[in-house]
What we know:
By secondary structure, this protein is of the alpha/beta class. It has helices spanning 5-11, 20-32, 50-56, 61-82, 101-119, 137-148, 166-183, 188-194, 197-201, 249-260, and strands at residues 42-46, 86-93, 124-129, 156-164, 214-217, 236-239. Helix 6 links the parallel strand 3 and strand 4.
Amino acid sequence: MCAVVVQARKSGESPVELPGFLYGFYERKLQRTLKQDQIPRHIGVMVDGNRRWARQFNAPTSQGHQAGADKIHEFLGWCQELGVKVVTLYMLSTDNMNRSGEELDLLMGIIANTMDRLDEDEDVSVHAMGAPELLPDYLAERLNKLTARTPIQEKIHVNVAVGYGGRREIVDAVRELLHDAVAKGRNMSGVADELSVDDISRFLYTRGQPDPDLVIRTSGEQRLSGFLMWQSAYSEFYFCEALWPAFRKVDFLRALRDYAGRQRRYGT
């Protein structure tokens, strides 16, 4: 079951699972409570818990990663149905690159297949975020191909964070800013004196996109792990106990309902 920890205590929602035949009714009821102007424009998702899901069934880790990949396509369908315009998926962090070579090889192949499935949808645009030099050539090439593709009629924009680290993104942005200043013949002292938040934002991986309104993390963990560190300064956060492969539309609608009930503040 998903809930923000504090909100769950206040709401009094029962942790008891509903019988399967009631879920369709409950989904429709939840969805009717959401107004279009309450739907987040940009949602960031930390797709966490694939390996733990596999362990629950004594299944190989690769099966958990494949179930997580299948859930991504299901989730994007929900987002399109509800009118979400931008989704950022945290699929593989730079820290994950320390896993065993065997697991990484399987995971990279699953991610590549996921990209192929996204490529089949002509109404989806994809932008790759991360360090392509950390990835095998075949995966980096597929990500570049998808990023370069122009959709026929964009219904949803998907940022794929693969080989991604939030600190690295900020360093890369500053590095690119400085290279740009040098190319334009600017004085470094002047650049430092005039440097602003907007200057750095112009060189982030998500440049030109709205910052995420809502960030969801599954698996019960309550930390960002470097995800969109700069962009999430004023995002709302929703932490969900369900492991990503087990994340249901009901859980997503609960997250949106919780978001709709919040009063967003921007430092005022």
